[in-house]
Amino acid sequence: MSDFRQIDDNLYASPQITVADVATAKDLGVTLIVNNRPEDESPDQTPGSEIETAAKAAGIDYVAIPITHAGFGPGQVDAMRAAIDNSEGPILAYCRSGTRSTLLWALAEAKAGKNPSVIASKAAGGGYDISPIRQMVEMLSAGG
């Protein structure tokens, strides 16, 4: 069962999805699925390759930008920014709980110069707290 949380008009964040959830994403108009979960993080996760196959069969683009518990790097932020900028519709980003996906989105939005308070408010509206990366969001938003 899907637990897609709408963060803004163009992003849903979710805990681990299944192949069946791809149809729900399609019904919501999702045009891109972003997998932020490293492969083999947990024995019960659906492999990214299965999600990718289902997404492509449904006409949804797919990209993997894995985020480990080691944290975020500039390459991941740039990749998420590019995914957002190149998407032609809503995005579904997922990881184990949706937190890493939301935090990566927040960093990518900050890199685009978006207001940190608005970013934090949107994340909170979806049930996610960006306070662990708030300083990074402030820095990126200021052009740092």
From TrEMBL:
GO terms for molecular function: hydrolase activity. Transmembrane segments: none annotated. NCBIfam families: TIGR01244 family sulfur transferase. This is Uncharacterized protein. It comes from Croceicoccus naphthovorans.
